[in-house]
């Protein structure tokens, strides 16, 4: 059993009957002469001005799309995607000179074949195919921004 006023008693968050303070906490000034911290007993009310919403809906102005954000023509998309696959792969492998990317383009779709050095195949595929999946995800994200479709095949030799 725990004595009232002991350290274990205050840990349970019990309140002293006299002043509403937690057991072991008093309103008396601290020994160092500092004034005690006073907490407001009144509940905090949010100002109605802060909570009010505007009466009319906010209108957003349309901004023109810059040329860098505009969809690329079908000829530019495969070139950009080719460079992306080439750049990412060359920075993953130990033998960047052996990286070879081939592309087969259609109107709105491009297929990439990726050939790497035999020792680098594991680096490009990754554990349980996670790196290959990430490469495909990045490629598809970039292609979708250009309103294009792309696929990546990693060729083992």
Please give the structural blueprint.
Elements: H1 7-11, H2 48-51, H3 76-90, E1 100-105, E2 109-115, H4 121-125, H5 130-145, E3 149-155
Parallel strand pairs: 2-3
Antiparallel strand pairs: 1-2
Helix pairs in contact: 3-5
Structural class: alpha+beta
Residues in helices, as a percent range: 25-40%
Task: Report the sheet-strand fraction.
Answer: 5-15%
Question: What is the end-to-end distance?
Answer: 76 Å
What integer is the average pLDDT? 74
Basic shape: elongated
Query: If helices are DSSP runs of H or I spanning 4 or more residues, what is the number of helices?
Result: 5
Number of strands: 3
How large is the radius of gyration?
33 Å
Q: How would a crystallographer describe the biggest sheet?
A: 3 strands, mixed
Q: Ranges with pLDDT <50 over ≥5 residues?
A: 60-72
The helix/strand order is HHHEEHHE
Spatial strand order of the main sheet: 1-2-3
What would your notes on this structure say?
By secondary structure, this protein is an alpha+beta fold. Helix content is 29%, strand content 13%. The chain is built from five helices and three strands. The protein has helices at 7-11, 48-51, 76-90, 121-125, 130-145; strands spanning 100-105, 109-115, 149-155. A three-stranded mixed β-sheet has the order 1-2-3, with helices on one face. Helix 3 (76-90) packs antiparallel against helix 5. Residues 60-72 have low confidence and may be disordered.
In short, what is this structure?
By secondary structure, the protein is an alpha+beta fold. The protein contains five helices and three strands.
């Amino acid at each position: 059993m725990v004595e009232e006023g002991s350290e274990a008693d205050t840990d349970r968050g019990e309140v002293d009957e006299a002043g509403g303070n937690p057991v072991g906490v008093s309103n008396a000034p601290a020994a160092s002469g500092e004034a005690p911290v006073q907490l407001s007993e009144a509940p905090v009310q949010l100002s109605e001005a802060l909570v009010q919403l505007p009466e009319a809906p906010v209108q957003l102005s349309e901004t023109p799309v810059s040329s860098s954000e505009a969809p690329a023509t079908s000829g530019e998309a495969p070139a950009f995607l080719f460079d992306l696959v080439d750049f990412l792969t060359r920075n993953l492998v130990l033998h960047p000179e052996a990286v070879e990317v081939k592309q087969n383009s259609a109107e709105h779709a491009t297929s990439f074949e990726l050939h790497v050095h035999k020792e680098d195949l594991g680096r490009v595929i990754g554990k349980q195919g996670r790196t290959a999946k990430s490469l495909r995800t990045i490629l598809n994200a970039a292609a979708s921004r250009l309103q294009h479709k792309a696929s990546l095949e990693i060729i083992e030799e």
